[in-house]
Each structure stands twice: as structure tokens, then as C-alpha cells.
Amino acid sequence: MLSYHSKHWEESARSRADFGSLLFSAPDHFNMSKGRDRKLIVNSADFPDIGTSLLSVTSSGHEIDLADDKYLTVMIPTHGQTHVHMDRRKTVIQEGSALALGPSERWTRVEKGRHRDFRANLAKISLDAAPLRHVLPVVTDDPVLPTAPKALAGFRALMHYLFSDLASPMPTLIHRPASDLFAALVLEHIRMMFQTGMDRIMNEKPQHSLVSRAEEFMVANLGEPLTVPIMAEALGVSVRQLQDAFRQSVKQSPWERLTAHRLDKARRNLLAGGGDTVTAIAFDCGFSHLGRFAQTYRATFGEAPSATLRRGRMRRSANRIDDTQTG
Known about the structure:
The two termini are 31 Å apart. The protein has 2 domains: 3-198, Jelly Rolls, CATH 2.60.120.10; 205-317, Orthogonal Bundle (Arc Repressor Mutant, subunit A), CATH 1.10.10.60. By secondary structure, the protein is of the alpha+beta class. It is built from 9 helices and 12 strands. The strands form 2 sheets. Strands 1-3-4-11-6-9-12 form a 7-stranded antiparallel β-sheet, covered by helices on one side. It has a 5-stranded antiparallel β-sheet with strand order 2-5-10-7-8, with no helix packed on it.
């Protein structure tokens, strides 16, 4: 389910500076920049099932100081620029670029562009959201998170479509099943944005070759009864070497990565909405214990495998009806 809110504040001779209710965080300090025609507009689309809020912000300029320890934040300015200060580190985000931040204390100032108000899209992603736990990067002491520019381009376009639809006289995405399908798209874009970013970091590490070969072997043999010793033998290394390479590169064990790949494949197959049962899909993806698969799947994605399959079949049926009507 999607919930949409649009909040506006514009300064006038009679208005007070009551823009606090528009804020999507609880800052230690917030102030609008000085000047004429001050305004703040915040449109938010909340997807509680995946612990994610997407926001569109228009501002004449403001400053905000906050400590955010529960969310990952992706900032994407479209007009103007953003200045972010964290400890002794300063980052400037220009139009068309982006910055992803983990939990951090930061001071942010946004500035409007020439003759245009500042505009940006943001994503607030809960660290506690079950469907995202297997796709979010490992939080470290460095609050700046690696992202993939190519994946960000698609994410930016997705948010542009979202807010264009929600602002229209007859929005489609506010209703089910469209909102559920869009939430699945958001989840996939987040996965691509951070996974590809982590792959770029892995390329710079000496363990990349071994981890890359291991991941390729996993993906090619997901349906086989793999174990860590079997994978190590196939790759010509010891179990200890394989485990160390994964822990240093991706902060996970080989078995955790194998399980994540199997879960991803199972979810794709379930969302495809074909004729296979949950049991058949689980076995095809290498899960030998159906009860354990269902438990792990629910803990990862926040819903039962049967619910995902049902949604996939609904989407497949809707597409078939559309094809019939347009044909």
C-alpha cells in the first residue's frame, strides 16, 4: 500500500514561519534561508511494506542539522545544489549527481539555482525493513555509501514518474495492485543501486577475483546441493581462504551469499507468476527444506512466498487482459 502526502508552506505578510510540520525528519535545527518569496514544498510517497519513503522537495533554500541513526538516505538534486558537512568532511552535490548516506550526524544546506527554486528527490530507507536487509550495504564508520551512477539514472526516472502520476488528476499508483507492483520496482532499483555500487568497490580489492569466481559458480549452480567445502574445492582454494575472502570483501560468509542468491532467484520466479508451485520453485532454487525456506523468505522480504506468487499471478493475469483488450 502507498500513502501520499503533499505539504506546502509559503511565506506571506500574514503567515508565520510554521514549516516544522512539513519536515520528514526530526532535526536539531532547521531554518529557511533569508530572502524573498520563501517557500517549502514536500511531497512524500510512503511504502511501509518495504520501509521506504520517496520524497520530492522544493525549497527557496534552507539549513538543517540532524542526527539520523535509523535510515539510509539518498539525495538527488535536480535544481540547485546541496552542501553536506559531516565531522570534518564536506561534500557538495550538484544537479544530476547523488549522494547516499548511512546513519550519521550532519549539517545540510540547500541552495536554489539561478532563477529557480531548489528541487531534489530523496529516498529514506529504514535499516530495520525486513525486505531490504539482504540488499542494503553493510554500514561502516564511513557514512558515504557507494552507489552505481547507471543505476541511479533509472532510480531518478522512477521517482519522476511516481510524482508525476501522484500529482495528476487521476493517479494510478495510489491504488492496488499498482502500488504493490511499484513497491516491488522500488525494491529492485534499491538493490541494483547499492549492489552494483558494492561490486565497483570489490573490483578495487585483491580478493575480488576469488569472490567474483565464487559468485559466478554459485549463480550457475543454485539448484545443486552446494556446501562451502564443495565450492572451495571447485575453485581450487581452501575453505578458510574462501571464507576470509568473502568476509573481507562483502562482510558476509559464502553460505550467506549463496542463500541471498537463492532467495533472489526464488523471488524472481515467484513474481513471474507462472504455473510452478512454491514447493517446486523452492526446490529449483536449491532449498531442500520447505519450512526453513518459507521462514527465511518471510524474514527477508516481509511476506510469505505464497503471497509473492499470488501477486505475481495477479500481475500476469492483468497483463494478459490488457493484451487482449489492446489486441
